[in-house]
């Protein structure tokens, strides 16, 4: 796991290829391969008919209408398995986002740490954040949003553990500020919201009084074919390519 | 979020890839530079704008500039003759082209179009696309506008890149827009590069408490109301080219301060910075959408929190052209600024980065201005280190603006005799100029530590500096002497830009910092002076200028007024003002006079913190020339350096260069 965290680019490529192959394999299992193959053959046959009899308008139009019908049938066959595959995809993308979606901070560069405090749980005016070996600004408190923010400037590379002091609470946050390099505990966001916990089951626990933690790492960009792009675009392109190749190799109708 | 790939960047990648695949290997091998490895010689040029020889000498004598001393000991230190007028765009154009102003056509920061009488910034002109379709309030341009470089003559690097000699030219003045040359040239534009709004930089100040009433040309002061510690404002961007009556595109700015602590969160179009009072932010990228998702312009700003409590006051820098996605041609190759920004972070792209107007107009104080100046210098140093580390051969030219801009505003703070000395300023402000000079010494040291004996090192400034304590209202003087006529002298002091001028009876007018133009019939839009009278009027003005005395001191205000026909020759000599005024040390034209204002009085005290200058007679403000070579030329001029650089590479100067190579 640590190796995966340290080399995000190759992690992204590896996971994209693996995801492409696995998703195609799953698609092969949960879709009606025979029906798909038949519909595709019909569409192709109608396409040929439309081309061959292009001088016969009536025949060509009928073939095109059947192609349209075939397309609709293909969609009804392909959509349900795709919707099913969306569920693991969302989980996968969520996990990948925390793994490869953000860059660690640069030494000496400021980050914002933002906490939302639960209603009535704590007096945000006395909230204090301590970060090991980093300069922390006084808090910026927004009572109307139950939010406290700090600007943190970590000087040295490495993990900088954080501690939060609220009235009657002294909680060591499970998160550290990651500077210069990633470690396994790279966290840019965490929330107590049930849907978030469902999507990110392995995300860190927050102290009782805190509902949300956000650290403003910058979004990571990756280079593919000489162009820099968001990791989701890289994922989509690479997994699509891997899926197409895998589909051919495993004789799966897509 | 997918990072937008600009059309230019996409084309560059595509063409680069296809080109690399398509070029046959023998062709690559036949490039003379790659084939023979012949050009092993190197030339390093450091340009320190406005570095003054007298102060340098004094600091060297005190042992404060050890690397300058080291360089002088290896070769020599001379005063460098500068152009008339000794203004940066003029002098650096002469450095670039190896010609006096008649050879490059730049005579001032401001020129005027004789036919239309429209003034413009001398080194570049924007030309809008002429063809468009109008649909209601919308305009669809069918042709893109362009920016033209007005500096004529041939830059010395043309001869180098033609021979595949690598050249780096960093931030030289009078070099915007950057014209695409060979990929052997790495160039970033300097002084003359506008902000994203197209001007020389407009700040924004959000303030809860009104500032004293003052005419402000350098930016916008927006009064904000703070409710529950939240204030909202707008950052103005460029005008949309898609509207018939273009309005500036704005993005929202939200400022939330802590109820007790001196901390504030600034949100500009979704980009957030959290700052303490007295802090500068990092660069904040901003995007101005003309048509959402279809057409936008990228910029970047820095914020400075002047005060959080009791009254909120936040300064936003002029919107810079974003080097990550430049909206104008600021570099060559086209992705050079992006490469730099990716390696050293975003940086000021505006040609005159330090916000002198903000200090002049009371928006920043001297200390705050100095802090900004140090940020600019740190960015320049980072760029220098990056570029110099990759410099292996060819010609390396690197320019620093800090010595000039800081001297204009803060040199007064190092001289207790200066009328605008600030006795209560912190020591850091009083030591500011020494700080920057020592910083340049450090740069010289980094160069000397790395260069070998085959490398020629030239360190130059385009002019020196002198106090600017008394200002002359040249335009008002011309009225007083009867050369400029006005319809109502009682109201002329309130007017700008030649309002109330009676052109029928005007024989000469002042425009720019040093220039006087005759109102010549057939040349000027409303010219009335016959050619036959021109010489007489010119001589009379020059004679009277020589007689002009400061009523306070009895000293001459003008050291020498030059007849341009004696001063300039060359293909662009006709563009020059008819008379160039060489002010005596301590004097310069007033700001209002530059663009046709007629302030009261002729000579008066300078009140603006911009209280040191160089737009005087060139003999008052020579530049510096240090080199690790000993030059026998006794009185080198700035236009001699281009042919000298070419000679170091064994190349003869083109005929357009009138300068002579320095004798070794």
From TrEMBL, chain A:
- Keywords in alphabetical order, please: Membrane, Transmembrane, Transmembrane helix
Keyword Transmembrane listed? The answer is: yes
Keyword flag Transmembrane helix: yes
| Top-rank taxon | Bacteria
* Membrane spanning residue stretches: 12-30, 74-94, 229-247
Q: Tell me what this protein is called.
A: Uncharacterized protein
Print the organism lineage: Bacteria, Pseudomonadati, Planctomycetota, Planctomycetia, Isosphaerales
From TrEMBL, chain B:
SUPFAM superfamilies per UniProt: Alkaline phosphatase-like
State a single Pfam family of this protein. Answer: Phosphodiest
Q: What is this protein called?
A: Phosphodiesterase
Q: Can you name the source organism?
A: Tautonia sociabilis
């Amino acid at each position: 796991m640590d190796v995966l965290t340290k080399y995000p680019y190759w992690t992204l490529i590896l996971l994209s290829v693996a995801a492409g192959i696995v998703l195609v394999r799953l698609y092969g299992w949960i879709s009606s391969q025979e029906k798909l193959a038949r519909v595709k053959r019909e569409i192709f046959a109608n396409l040929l008919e439309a081309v061959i009899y292009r001088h016969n308008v009536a025949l060509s139009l009928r073939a095109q209408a059947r192609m349209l019908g075939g397309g609709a049938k293909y969609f009804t066959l392909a959509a349900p398995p795709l919707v099913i595959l969306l569920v693991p995809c969302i989980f996968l993308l969520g996990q990948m986002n925390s793994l490869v979606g953000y860059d660690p901070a640069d030494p000496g560069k400021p980050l914002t740490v933002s906490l939302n405090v639960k209603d009535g749980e704590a007096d945000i005016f006395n909230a204090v954040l301590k970060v090991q070996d980093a300069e922390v600004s006084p808090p910026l408190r927004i009572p109307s949003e139950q939010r406290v923010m700090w600007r943190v400037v970590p000087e040295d590379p490495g993990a900088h553990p954080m501690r939060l002091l609220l009235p009657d609470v002294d909680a060591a946050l499970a998160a550290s500020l990651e500077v210069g390099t990633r470690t396994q505990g790279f966290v840019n966001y965490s929330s107590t919201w049930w849907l978030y916990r469902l999507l990110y089951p392995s995300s860190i626990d927050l102290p009782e009084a805190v509902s949300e933690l956000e650290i403003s790492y910058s979004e990571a960009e990756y280079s593919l074919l000489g162009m820099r792009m968001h990791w989701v675009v890289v994922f989509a392109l690479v997994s699509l390519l891997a899926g197409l190749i895998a589909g051919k190799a495993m004789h799966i109708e897509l | 979020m997918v990072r937008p790939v600009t059309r230019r960047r996409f084309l560059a990648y595509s063409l680069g890839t296809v080109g690399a695949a398509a070029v046959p290997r023998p062709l690559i091998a036949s490039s003379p530079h790659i084939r023979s490895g012949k050009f092993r010689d190197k030339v390093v040029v450091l340009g320190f704008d406005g570095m003054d020889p007298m102060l340098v000498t004094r600091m060297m004598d005190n042992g404060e500039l050890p690397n300058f001393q080291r360089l002088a000991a290896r070769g020599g230190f001379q005063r460098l003759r500068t152009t008339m007028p000794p203004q940066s765009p003029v002098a650096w154009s002469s450095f670039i082209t190896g010609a006096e102003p008649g050879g490059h056509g730049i005579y001032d920061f401001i020129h005027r179009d004789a036919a239309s009488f429209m003034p413009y910034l001398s080194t570049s002109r924007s030309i809008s696309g002429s063809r468009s379709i109008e649909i209601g309030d919308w305009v669809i341009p069918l042709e893109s506008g362009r920016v033209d470089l007005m500096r004529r003559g041939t830059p010395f690097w043309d001869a180098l890149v033609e021979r595949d000699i690598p050249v780096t030219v960093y931030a030289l003045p009078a070099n915007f827009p950057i014209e695409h040359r060979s990929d052997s040239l790495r160039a970033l534009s300097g002084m003359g590069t506008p902000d994203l709004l197209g001007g020389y930089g407009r700040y924004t100040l959000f303030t809860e408490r009104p500032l004293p009433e003052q005419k402000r040309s350098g930016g916008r002061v927006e009064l904000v109301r703070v409710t529950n510690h939240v204030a909202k404002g707008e950052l103005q961007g460029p005008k949309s080219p898609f509207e018939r009556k273009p309005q500036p595109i704005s993005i929202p700015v939200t400022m939330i301060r802590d109820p007790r602590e001196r901390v504030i969160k600034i949100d500009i179009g979704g980009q957030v910075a959290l700052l303490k009072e007295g802090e500068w932010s990092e660069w904040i990228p901003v995007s101005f959408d003309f048509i959402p998702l279809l057409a936008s312009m990228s910029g970047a700003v820095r914020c400075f929190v002047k005060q959080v409590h009791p009254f909120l006051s936040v300064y936003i820098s002029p919107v810079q052209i974003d080097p990550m996605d430049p909206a104008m041609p600021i570099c060559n190759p086209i992705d050079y600024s992006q490469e730099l920004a990716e390696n050293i972070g975003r940086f000021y792209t505006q040609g005159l980065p330090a916000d002198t107007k903000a200090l002049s107009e009371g928006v920043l104080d001297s200390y705050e201005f100095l802090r900004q100046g140090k940020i600019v210098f740190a960015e320049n140093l980072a760029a220098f280190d990056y570029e110099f580390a990759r410099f292996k051969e060819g010609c390396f030219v690197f320019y620093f603006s800090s010595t000039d801009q800081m001297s204009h505003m803060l040199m007064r703070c190092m001289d207790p005799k200066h009328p605008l000395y600030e006795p209560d300023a912190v020591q850091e402000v009083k030591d500011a100029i020494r700080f920057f000079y020592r910083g340049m010494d450090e740069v010289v040291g980094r160069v000397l530590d790395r260069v070998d004996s085959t490398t020629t090192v030239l360190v130059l400034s385009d002019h020196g500096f002198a106090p600017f304590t008394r200002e002359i209202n040249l335009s008002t003087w011309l009225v007083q002497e009867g050369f400029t006529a006005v319809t109502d002298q009682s109201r002329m002091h309130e007017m700008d830009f030649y309002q109330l001028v009676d052109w029928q009876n005007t024989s000469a007018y002042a425009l720019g910092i040093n220039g006087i133009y005759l109102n010549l019939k057939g040349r000027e839009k409303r010219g009335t002076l016959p050619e036959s009278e021109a010489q007489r009027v010119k001589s009379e003005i020059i004679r009277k200028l020589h007689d002009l005395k400061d009523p306070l001191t009895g000293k001459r205000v003008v050291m020498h007024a030059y007849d341009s026909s004696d001063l300039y020759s060359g293909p662009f000599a006709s563009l020059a003002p008819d008379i160039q005024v060489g002010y005596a040390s301590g004097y310069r034209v007033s700001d209002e006079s530059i663009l046709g204002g007629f302030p009261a009085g002729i000579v008066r005290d300078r009140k603006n913190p911009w209280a040191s200058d160089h737009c005087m007679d060139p003999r008052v403000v020579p530049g510096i020339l240090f080199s690790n070579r000993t030059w026998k030329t006794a009185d080198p001029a700035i236009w001699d350096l281009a042919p000298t650089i070419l000679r170091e590479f064994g190349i003869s100067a083109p005929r357009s260069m009138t300068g002579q190579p320095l004798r070794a």
